[in-house]
Write a structure and sequence with these properties.
The structure is a single chain. The chain is of the alpha/beta class and 420 residues long. It is built from 14 helices and 13 strands. The chain has 2 domains: 262 residues, Aspartate Aminotransferase, domain 2; 133 residues, Alpha-Beta Complex (Aspartate Aminotransferase, domain 1). The protein has a 7-stranded mixed beta sheet with strand order 2-10-9-8-5-3-4, with helices on both faces. It has a two-stranded parallel sheet with strand order 1-12. The protein has a two-stranded antiparallel ribbon with strand order 6-7. Bound molecules: pyridoxal-5'-phosphate. Pyridoxal-5'-phosphate binds next to helix 3. Keywords: Aminotransferase, Pyridoxal phosphate, Transferase. GO terms for molecular function: alanine-glyoxylate transaminase activity; L-serine-pyruvate transaminase activity.
Length: 420
């Protein structure tokens, strides 16, 4: 059997990940391999740590990627701080809240959760009141819920956690690099980012950061393991058990990423190159400018969709700027529309999960995919495809509305010239 050379068609990817990657990041990935203890490589690792601190907006000592997809970051932080029987509180407002519960349960936590309808978020005070009843050791929550396109306000929750001496772990996989999130200012103890979303780096790494409150637990558990824990250490380890995972043991990863450079795994060389270039591009653009860019293209997309006559899904006050959820019009086969977009226009948009499956499309505007040409392409193509599906859209209105947001000059008066 003869296999053809690898071929991937060029796509416009407007999903909540994986998204398009800047050609400079792809180029960085073809940089020659270096040994993992080569000073040239450890220097790159150190730069990645420093750039991550800036993107996470933290002074934390520890900020480095876990090798694995985004959920590996969630698992690494949670399994390193959860001891069997620990109480963890998880407010759930979409699919990824359920993932947090699942991970916590697998490591022996006693999980308490609360849920709100998909498309909404929690009033922070509700979370705080429930938290005060549950009295957990850890609160684990999603910041940007890609499944519903909502964003949970965290600042008040963070403050209440710190006051109650509760650890706050936040899944910011979908928001980091696209939406404002401040690790230190919002009192977030452990935070997880994702690469294939707003950072616009391929999938396969999960940058994380955590502070001394988490580090205290790690070092206590490590000393317990070695039988050298003091009374002071033991106050940070209730169960006095070692971390169950080897791959995700943050204390071992610290020894690898820190000055001791003790071998743990073999760092994913080409992915580190990609992350390095991706982070460099983000800092060169500027965090604030980048957040503004995401808002601008979101605005143009929404203006276009509404002008076409489509309705958005979910509470508009708590919309995640980088994911726009659109209600599938009545009697339209959402999957058929997505297929036609892909086959005829090489554009990918997403469906959704669970209770929202078949009800909404999700259009991502993340990182390198979040640019004018992509917004205009998806609006034009979606209009054409919906017309092909017999939907009575306001023809021609979507692109004009988006062009208005972009302040594209009108060169002729609005009384259209007749074609002769
Ligand atoms: C995408 C996503 C994840 C999971 O990412 P994987 O890379 O598929 O493991 C977790 N949380 C949120 C909020 C996400 O959007």
């Amino acid at each position: 059997m003869v296999f053809s050379e690898l071929f991937a068609p060029s796509r416009t990817i407007m999903t909540p990940g994986p998204v398009e990657v800047d050609p400079r990041v792809l180029r960085a990935m073809s940089t020659p391999i270096l040994g993992q203890f080569d000073p040239a490589f450890t220097n790159i690792m150190n730069q990645v740590m420093e750039m991550l601190r800036q993107v996470f907006q933290t002074k934390n000592r520890w900020a480095f990627p876990i090798d694995g997809t985004s959920r590996s970051g969630n698992e690494a932080i949670l399994c390193s701080i959860i001891e069997p029987g620990d109480r963890v509180f998880v407010p759930i407002y979409g699919r990824f809240g359920h993932l947090l519960v699942e991970i916590c349960e697998r490591y022996g936590a006693e999980v308490h959760s609360m849920e709100c309808p998909w498309g909404e978020v929690f009033d922070p005070q509700m979370v705080i009141d429930e938290m005060n009843k549950v009295k957990p050791k850890i609160v684990a929550i999603v910041h940007g819920e890609t499944s519903t396109g909502r964003m949970q306000p965290l600042k008040e929750i963070g403050k209440a956690c710190r006051e109650g001496d509760i650890l706050l772990v936040v899944d910011a996989v979908a928001s980091i690099g696209g939406v404002q999130i401040k690790t230190d200012e919002w009192y977030i103890d452990g935070m997880i980012g994702g690469t294939q979303k707003c950072l616009s780096v391929p999938s396969g790494m999960a940058p994380i950061t955590y502070n001394e409150r988490i580090e205290n637990i790690l070092s206590a558990r490590k000393k317990v393991e070695r039988g050298i824990a003091t009374e002071e250490d033991l106050q940070f380890s209730r169960s006095r058990q070692a971390i169950a995972s080897n791959y995700f043991d943050l204390s071992m990863l610290q020894d690898y990423w820190g000055p001791r450079r003790l071998n743990h795994h073999t760092e994913a060389t080409s992915m580190i190159y990609a992350l390095h270039e991706g982070l460099r591009l983000i800092l060169a653009e500027g965090l604030e400018q980048r957040f503004e860019r995401h808002k601008l293209h979101e605005k143009a997309l929404i203006a276009g969709l509404e002008a076409m006559g489509l309705s958005l899904f979910g509470d508009p006050k708590h919309k995640l700027p980088c994911v726009t959820c659109v209600e599938i019009p009545k009697d339209v086969d959402g999957e058929s529309v997505r297929n036609m977009l892909l086959e005829q226009f090489s554009i990918e948009i997403a469906s959704s999960f669970g209770p929202l499956h078949g009800k909404i499309w999700r259009i991502g505007t993340m990182g390198y995919s979040c640019r004018k040409e992509n917004i205009l392409s998806v609006l034009g193509a979606l209009e054409a495809v919906l017309i092909r599906h017999g939907v009575n859209v306001h023809r021609g209105a979507a692109l004009q509305a988006a062009l208005d947001v972009y302040n594209v000059e009108r060169l002729a008066d609005f009384s259209f010239k007749k074609l002769s």
